[in-house]
Amino acid sequence: SFNAAATGRNVRFEFVIRAKQGLPPNKVKEWLDATRAEIIPKVCAQNADNPAFDRGLSYTFSYSNTYGEKLGDIFIDKTTCKNLGL
C-alpha cells in the first residue's frame, strides 16, 4: 500500500511492502541500499529544473512491511543530489 503526505517542504511517501517478518539487518540494509540507488537518480533528474527543489523541497520515501516493522527511510533533497554529482 501507499500513502503520501506533505509537511512543510517535505513530501513523504509511505510504502507498506510484502517482506518477511524479522529480516536480518544486513538484508534490510542491502535492500534499502539497492532501492536508494534506484530512486535517488530518478528524483534528482525529475527535479533538476524544479525551482521548489532549489528552495528547499525534499522527499522522504519511508518503507515498512505488512507486519509493521520499519525497513528504513530514504531522504532526498538538493544537497543529496549535489553530493552524488547528480
Describe the structure.
By secondary structure, the protein is of the alpha+beta class. The protein is 37% helix and 34% strand. It is built from three helices and four strands, in the order E-E-H-H-E-E-H. It has helices at residues 25-46, 51-54, 78-83; strands spanning 2-7, 10-17, 58-65, 70-76. Strands 1-2-3-4 form a four-stranded mixed beta sheet. The N and C termini lie far apart (29 Å). The relative contact order is 0.24.
Question: Secondary-structure map with pairings?
Answer:
Layout (H helix, E strand, L loop, with lengths): L1 E6 L2 E8 L7 H22 L4 H4 L3 E8 L4 E7 L1 H6 L3
Number of contiguous helices: 3
What oligomeric arrangement do these chains adopt?
single chain
Approximately how much beta-strand content do the residues carry? 25-35%
How many beta-strand segments? 4
Major beta sheet, strand line-up:
1-2-3-4
What is the radius of gyration computed over CA atoms, rounded to a whole number of angstroms? 14 Å
Order of helices and strands: EEHHEEH
Q: What's the average pLDDT?
A: 95
Jot down its keywords.
86 residues, alpha+beta, four-stranded mixed beta sheet, 3 helices, globular
